[in-house]
Amino acid sequence: MAMRFDAGEIITAMITPMDKDRKVDYNALEKLVEHLIATGTESILVAGTTGESPTLTHDEEVEIFNFVKKVTAGRAKLIMGAGSNCTATAVMATNNAKECGADAVLSVVPYYNKPSQKGLIEHFSTIAKSTDLPVLLYNIPGRTGITMKPETIAQLAEENKNIFAVKQSIADMDMITETRRLCPDDFLIYSGDDSLTLPMVSVGAYGVISVASHIIGKQMHEMLNLYKSGKVAEATKMHLKLYPLFKKIFMAPNPVPVKECLKKMGIIENYVRRPLVELDEQERKELYSVLEQYI
Q: Do the beta carbons of residue 74 and residue 41 sit within 8 Å?
């Protein structure tokens, strides 16, 4: 399949491990990166929302990225979160990502100031024209307050060859279908929600930008492989089996539950920066009762 940039089917939106002082825990980060590569992650997204980017400083983001780059040593592609609700800031972040040696950037729909569709075209075109890096659009109405329409995505994909994909965090399959129908064949659609991976792939998505792949990366690969090799019933069975975990890791604001899972697996300690808070004992029990079916 021809594509503008190959980030693989499974991109993990990586968490940022923290120690008890809520500083970045680099020992745990190294362990985590090795675990992700071993369980089938093809690209690692650094400093996305799952990585607690709203509470990371710019210096921390660069330091984390450089560390992950050293550990991966070319075994996975690296995508850097470089979005902003200010176009000039997003351009600057994209240029910084290029300097760090990122393979691509993730650029989110501007949040809070709610631009029009025309404004979105201006915003993302300006970013794309400022760099030769591949740009992955990120449509997440629940966090931004607006929806980027399929026509807007299609126009951006037609006019900017380095805009290679969109991460769709929406449950509307008609909108996914329309996006696939309108966009060039070499433009990729990624599910932004683990539980929607199989439904989206069935209407033309390519893969997933995943949180669950921290825990069940191999099983998610297997599900995608089954579907793409025509074993649809088996893929559906796998989806149904994984579904309880897909939902449970969002029982509290992301990445709180997935960090708790990784703690249970012995990979990291579970600390998050405020305003996020760790799970209480009752919530932990509830999460563990689902998690133990998978690990």
A: no
